[in-house]
Amino acid sequence: MDVNTDHRFNPAARSEAVDPHLSKGFVLRLFDKLLDRWGIQQASAWRVGHKSGHDEGYLLGYDKGHKRGLEDGKLIVELQPGPIPVPGEPGVKPPAFFKNWTFPITPELEDEIRDDFARLLKDKPSEDQWKMILSKTPTTSVVAGAGSGKSTTMVLRLLVLHHYLGIKLESLTVITFTKESKLDFAGKVRKVFKQWGYELSKEESLDIVRTFHSRILSFTRSIPGLEKAQAFEFLDLKNDEEEKSGSMFQVKLKPEQLTLMNECYQDLYDSDPIFKDLIAELARRAIYLEHLDAQSADVKARQDKVVQMEQIDDALCFRLEGLWKSAGRWPIAGVVPSREKITLLGQTFHSNGFIPELGAYVILGVDKDEPRDLKIEPERWPYLTLDVADKRILFQAFCSKPVIFLSSYTDAGASVDAIMNLANACPKFRYKITGEISSQYILEAFYSAASFIENLGLDVIPAIKAMELTEDDPDRAFFKALGRYWVALDEKLRVMSPPVLTFNKMFSMFSERGAKNLQAVPDGVLQPMSTLLIDEFQDVGANTISWVRATFAEIERRNLPVQTDGPPAYASLMAVGDDWQSIYGWRGSSPQFFMEFDSHFVAPPSTRVFMQENHRSHQWVIDAAEAIVKRTGGFKNKKGKAANPQVIGNKVPVQMRDLSYIHLRETAQAHYEAGRSILVLYRVGRTKEVVEKNLASLISQAEKDGREGDLKLLTYHASKGLQADAVFLLGDCEMTTSSPFKNDIFRQAKMGGDDPCGFDTSQRSEALRTAYVAITRAITYCYWYVDRKEGKVRAYEKASRHVDKSLDCWDVLPSSTAQTKNEYGKKTVGQRVGSRRYR
Question: What integer is the mean pLDDT of 87-97?
Answer without folding.
Answer: 85
